[in-house]
Amino acid sequence: MYRFLVTALLLCTGGVLQAQQQEGAAAFSKDIRQPGVQVFDVRTAEEYNTGHLPNALQADYTNKTEFNDRVKYLDKQKPVYIYCLSGGRSSKAAQWMRENGFSKVIELENGVNAWKQAGLPLEGVNEKKPQLTMDAYNKGTAKGWVLTDVGAAWCPPCKQLEPVLTQFLKQHQQVKLMKVDGGNDTDVMKTIGAKGLPTLILYKDGKEVWRKQGVATAEELAAAVK
């Protein structure tokens, strides 16, 4: 059951009254398994990489540019289950989201700290993997048409981009895909100048011919290979 606090938040859009809603770890764990739920981690990327809830997307609430850029790719009509380390940042982020048209935002009471105390598992704990090397990257982009996708599973706009890439690659089978993990392959990202997620870079025989930071359309990608 939801814990309704005494203070209600007045949404800016339409004057609709929406109460702050929090759930304990056990209820939160159960509810995020529902179809269509969006799980949203508003800690830093470094905190996220120490362990996160299943299927969680990430945006650092304290980095306003990053937060505002990523939150717009969440579906306002679907439930958002939000959390941080102890509840402070997620409470502020949830309030902002309610005031900006999100229909249902549920907070994890006391955050990851409460999740751990309840004995619930986190994903991604101690999952270190070797970085992609520049040598491997250069070899992978040296011949023919190659599209580099710098993204991450936890990045909301990257999720938005996935079906676009699937459609494009199906229609342009001469183009190979090179994946760069935005949460792991930081050396490659720095070298190729990928400063945000997602970043798309198109190569022809090892030469960069097109680049875009952000979500591209299938039409933009198709025009780039002509």
TrEMBL record:
Listed InterPro entries: Rhodanese-like_dom, Rhodanese-like_dom_sf, Thioredoxin-like_sf, Thioredoxin_domain, Thiosulfate_ST/Rhodanese-like
Annotated ranges, domain Rhodanese: 33-124
Signal peptide positions (record): 1-19
Pfam family of the protein (one): Thioredoxin
Keywords from the UniProt entry: Signal
Domain Thioredoxin intervals: 123-226
Tree of life domain: Bacteria
PANTHER family from the UniProt entry: RHODANESE-LIKE DOMAIN-CONTAINING PROTEIN 15, CHLOROPLASTIC
Protein name: Thioredoxin fold domain-containing protein
Source organism phylogeny: Bacteria, Pseudomonadati, Bacteroidota, Chitinophagia, Chitinophagales
